């Protein structure tokens, strides 16, 4: 199956109020052109799952700065002052999640787990509203899975079947998010023919990918 399509076709089913996972770490490995396409489409009231919100002008931060996000799940927001301002002013709901817990909640969502047990957050504000579970005399917090309607991620290379290769640290949250969404859309710097990627170097198998956008063919 050829999964390579145009960028507007790739995002045509995203609607106001959808839950989106967007890859990247401080915008390193963020799908910048997919984010720009969302902005151009005018999508709003987004529930966003992203480890951070980059800067005001990069990554998912561009959605924050335009007030298109209704609720944010993130592990830190310190690099984007606008996110902090909106949180403090009550303009955007922000749930801060310890980074290791965040990635594990996403992994749980992607692999059909009922949640994860962690000691992180015990006795702190993180614990509020969560269930404690005792295992072998040790107490843990139950953290529930995170899932999304769409995952928007970035890869260095993709073939037409959707097999992906990341470059260095751009792997970050991109890889784990591919399994945790109903639809995964990839912005790839380079698209190659099937068989050109050595199977030993595939980071994300194409079974997790629905659409591939050739980012290298898009100007801007």
Describe the model.
- The chain is of the alpha/beta class and 220 residues long.
- It has one domain (7-98, 146-217): 3-Layer(aba) Sandwich (Glutaconate Coenzyme A-transferase), CATH 3.40.1080.10.
- Helix content is 20%, strand content 28%.
- It contains six helices and eleven strands.
- Strands 1, 2, 3, 4, 8, 9, 10 and 11 form an eight-stranded mixed beta sheet that branches. Strands 5-7-6 form a three-stranded antiparallel beta sheet.
- A hairpin with a 2-residue loop joins strand 6 (132-135) and strand 7.
- The longest helix has 12 residues, at 99-110.
- The protein is globular and about 55 Å long.
- The model has no long low-confidence stretch (mean pLDDT 95).
* Main pleated-sheet profile: 8 strands, mixed
Instruction: Give the CATH topology.
Output: Glutaconate Coenzyme A-transferase
Structural class, please? alpha/beta
Shape annotation: globular
**Count of spatially separate domains:** 1
User: H/E element string?
Assistant: HEHEHEHEHEEEEEHEE
What would CATH call the architecture? 3-Layer(aba) Sandwich
Mean pLDDT: 95
